[in-house]
Amino acid sequence: MSAALMELRSVTRSFPGDPAVHALRGVDLAVDEGDYVAIVGPSGSGKSTMLNILGLLDRPTTGEYLLEGSPTTDLDDVGRTAVRARVLGFVFQSFHLLPRRTALENVSLPLIYSGAPRAERESRARDALHRVGLGARVDFRPDILSGGERQRVAVARALVTRPRVVLADEPTGNLDGERTEEIMSLFEDLHGQGMTLVVITHDTGVAARAHRVVRITDGRLSEVS
Ligand code: ADP
Ligand code: MG
Hints:
Layout: E1 6-15, E2 21-31, E3 36-40, H1 47-54, E4 62-67, E5 70-71, H2 77-87, E6 88-92, H3 103-108, H4 118-131, H5 147-159, E7 165-169, H6 177-192, E8 196-200, H7 204-209, E9 212-217, E10 220-223
Parallel strand pairs: 3-8, 3-9, 6-7, 7-8
Antiparallel strand pairs: 1-2, 1-4, 4-5, 9-10
The structure holds adenosine-5'-diphosphate (ADP) and magnesium ion.
């Protein structure tokens, strides 16, 4: 059997303080290539903490995180940044777009570090915007786009580096029902094209669209389906 794309082994994450917060209390999770996993659970249960570790934005306090079958514990910041740029795409609840840059510029940005020449960066950004249905909006700035369109720009930005997995933290948390549906059908398309997806959500409708649901309660995981 081949190694999981992402694997957490007995991962804990505690935040020092008085009292310390034990956000993750021993989590085991394996995500295979092509999985579509929803992570559900109450506010404060450790969902974002877990996603940040999967995204190499944070480190376990104890335990091990293997990405592409390799331990990540010994990677320094430069190594982590390089792996993150090659393997992972991120989508956040609040989009995190640069307001004064066009959609095309926002989506091109993650390619700055790739060494690709400007023309290639732009053409890849254009392709990514087409892929999310925004081919006609490339020169628009975020402030004149709708919330749903902004989130689709953010998805394009996550895709432009051709990651192996997209990690999304409450991606529809700021969207109404119709826009949520647009993002969900976009995720379904991506999954159909072989993308691995890990999506945190409060929305049971959103979770139901995933192929696997894991629940996190007080820092502990249980498989729902
Ligand atoms: P969720 O995403 O499920 O709402 P989080 O993973 O953000 O939950 O947080 C889990 C727990 O860890 C919460 O009690 C939160 O207050 C705490 N926490 C998260 N990040 C930090 C931090 N940087 N410092 C201290 N406590 C934190
Ligand atoms: Mg959270």
